[in-house]
Design brief:
Elements (H helix, E strand, L loop, with lengths): L2 E3 L2 E4 L3 H14 L5 E5 L15 E2 L10 H11 L6 H20 L14 E2 L9 E2 L5 H13 L5 E5 L1 E9 L2 E9 L5 E5 L2 E4 L20 H8 L4 E2 L4 E8 L9 H4 L3 E3 L7 H4 L9 H13 L13 E4 L5 H7 L1 H11 L8 E10 L2 E3 L11 E3 L4 E2 L11 H23 L8 H12 L1 H4 L6 H15 L3 E2 L1 H18 L13 H25 L8 E2 L7 H4 L1 E6 L6 E6 L13
Parallel strand pairs: 1-10, 2-3, 2-11, 3-7, 11-18, 17-19, 20-21
Antiparallel strand pairs: 4-6, 5-6, 8-9, 9-10, 12-17, 12-22, 13-16, 14-15, 15-16, 22-23
The structure holds flavin-adenine dinucleotide (FAD).
The site of flavin-adenine dinucleotide has 44 residues, from α1, β3, α4, β8 and α5.
Length: about 575
């Protein structure tokens, strides 16, 4: 068995993974030998795409408060967020903003030199700290630069983790396929932080990178960890037509208008007070209603779209505050937003659910923590507020880094790994798809999955449509047994890589749809036409999905309510 050992393994090099690695290095003062594994080049993680900002309460003297940020988050979550988690988040976030400032991030500034903040959906104060509209890029750069100070870090870039090894409810190691050399090996470590991001690529129209295939979620799920609140998938109101690339919410935060084919600012009808800066679930539903009632523009893919209009902001503001949006619109939609409105429609954007963790990011398996979009610490409940995610990645990157480091420092020995188990995994990866009979094509299966998710598991859902989607997913899982890999090499075999990713997407999609069928209410992003009301008595609880070969086994856990009882959401 090929293998290497480290003290602590960070799986994923997005904002959550890099922040965790920096914290491990800081806390252990170089004593722990850290590995960071990423299936892409470290700086190509989806986090570099984050655009609009990172939320934190920075201005008590101007009227913001921890209580207000917490209330916005809880109300935005449609009362499914754990309120003790929200409280910790709002109180500890300002320090993260200052920490990044001390590490050198170029936050955008007010004329007096102080850190600027902009409006974001569902926040009742301008609370998003930002670096133009390239916030994630600068956060990644800053964390990466900071990491260079520490000698105790080994990077495994372009290495694909295929499974998480667990024995006696404790972490043992991971199996890794080095995409560049083709080698298959084990990394053993005392502790693991999973920071593998989301799985939005199960949808066709999405703002996400091709790499967001839910590998970490699927591996954790198959290793016995429950995944929580998976039915809650966020649709961002402004995905660019036709690619789905994100037009940041900051475009509305800076004053952009949403318009229908009559030129009307339709959000005035649906959210009279907040209008375009209402939370994303509400804006996305309003857009779909406008489209369904015939007030959209005919789209190139047969589906209608709407406009986001920035023209009244003027060239100077667009160039200073939204340079990336202008560049993206010009290059990908051939439209200059200074002169013309941008075509948009809701696009799959974020998973509120993830690996079930406690308030410190600890999973139920000893030695494993999870942070960032892959985790569900229950900060966002049924609907996340924009700019709260990069914030969560920073804060729970730090928290899990610290906790995992302390655990690894106390742990004397590495757990052993069964050679037989590793041989089985290697055979499963490299032989199974070569020896299967049948001629199924994984790319066709992926397309059919995306089409089912787009059509039947979108902004509005119904029981019969969800049932149809589940049936489709199960059919596709069956057909995966007849998928053949066309490229037989072990070196940079993207064909085999994509097959493994599609298998992961299918497992996670099944959990999303199964949870959504049973949840007979509408809450946040889970909007059932057949059950339009929120039902706090029966459904004020988290969904937990446990892997079984026959499909997910569902269970439930209570929501922690410490401050506010559920009330009607009005914006
Ligand atoms: C276009 C866009 C704009 C956004 N803008 C904002 C914003 O302005 N504000 C905000 O708060 N949020 C924003 N978000 C959401 C936010 O950026 C993400 O939720 C967050 O960056 C996720 O970070 P992460 O560290 O959890 O994971 P990611 O950055 O997605 O990183 C995942 C990592 O896991 C690795 N990985 C995954 N699977 C494997 C495997 N099998 N083996 C090895 N490595 C693996 C990947 O290589 C990668 O390094 C935006 C999202 C998008 C898509």
């Amino acid at each position: 068995m090929n293998g290497v050992t480290h003290d602590l393994l960070v799986l994923g090099s997005g904002i959550a993974g890099l922040r965790a690695a920096v914290e491990v290095a800081r806390v252990s003062k170089g004593e722990l030998d850290i590995a960071i594994v990423s299936k892409v080049q470290l700086m190509r993680s989806h986090s570099v795409c984050a655009e609009g900002g990172t939320a934190a309460m920075m201005r008590p003297e101007e009227g913001d408060s921890f209580e207000l940020h917490a209330w916005d988050t809880v109300r935005g979550s449609d009362f499914l967020a754990d309120q003790n988690v929200v409280q910790r988040f709002v109180e500890e976030m300002p320090q993260e903003i200052l920490q990044l400032e001390h590490w050198g991030i170029p936050w955008s500034r007010r004329p007096d030199g102080r850190i600027d903040q902009r409006a974001f959906g569902g926040h009742s104060f301008n609370r998003a700290v930002f670096a133009a509209d390239k916030t994630g890029f600068f956060e990644m750069q800053t964390l990466y630069d900071t990491l260079q100070k520490y000698a105790s870090v080994t990077r495994y870039d372009e290495c694909y983790v295929t499974s998480i090894l667990v024995g006696d409810n404790s972490f043992q190691g991971v199996t890794v396929w080095d995409l560049v050399s083709g080698e298959f090996f084990v990394i053993r470590a005392k502790a693991l932080v999973i920071a593998t991001g989301g799985a939005c690529r199960m949808f066709g129209f999405t703002t996400y990178s091709l790499t967001a295939t839910g590998d970490g979620l699927a591996m954790a799920y198959r290793a016995g960890l429950p995944i929580k609140d998976m039915e809650f998938v966020q649709f961002h109101p402004t995905g660019l037509i036709p690619s789905g690339i994100l037009i940041t919410e900051a475009a509305r935060g800076e004053g952009g208008y949403l318009r229908n084919n009559k030129g009307e600012r339709f959000m005035e009808k649906y959210a009279p007070e907040r209008k375009e800066t209402a939370p994303r679930d509400i804006v996305s539903r309003s857009e779909m209603t406008e489209i369904e009632e015939g007030r959209g523009f005919p789209g190139p893919d047969g589906l209608d779209y709407l406009h986001i209009d920035l023209r009244h902001l003027g060239a100077a503001k667009i160039n200073e505050r939204l340079p990336l949006i202008r560049e993206v619109a010009i290059k990908l939609a051939f439209i200059d937003p200074i002169d013309e409105p941008i075509p948009i429609r809701p696009a799959a954007h974020y998973f509120m659910g993830g690996i079930h963790v406690d308030i410190d990011g600890a999973t139920p398996i000893q030695g494993i923590w999870a942070a960032g979009e892959a985790a569900c610490v229950s900060l966002h409940g049924a609907n996340r507020l924009g700019s709260n995610s990069t914030a969560e990645c920073l804060l729970w990157g730090k928290i899990t880094g610290e906790k995992a480091a302390k655990f690894a420092l106390e742990q004397k020995a590495l757990a052993s790994v069964s050679e037989e188990r590793v041989r089985q995994e290697e055979a499963l990866i490299f032989d199974q798809y070569r020896h299967q009979s049948g001629e199924e094509d994984a790319y066709v299966i992926r397309e059919e999955l995306q089409s089912a998710m787009d059509r039947q598991v979108g902004v509005f859902r119904t029981g019969p449509e969800l049932e149809k989607a589940l049936e489709k997913i199960r059919e596709l899982k069956e057909r995966m047994k007849s998928v053949r890999v066309k490229d037989e090499s072990r070196v940079y075999n993207t064909n085999l890589l994509n097959i493994l990713e599609v298998a992961n997407l299918l497992d996670i999609a099944e959990a999303i749809v199964a949870g959504g069928i049973v949840r007979t209410e509408s809450r946040g992003s889970h909007s059932r036409r057949d059950f339009p009301q929120r039902d706090d008595v029966n459904w004020g609880k988290h969904t937990l999905a446990y892997y079984t070969p026959e499909g997910p086994r569902l269970d439930y856990s209570p929501v922690t309510i410490t401050m506010w009882k559920p009330v009607e959401r009005k914006y």
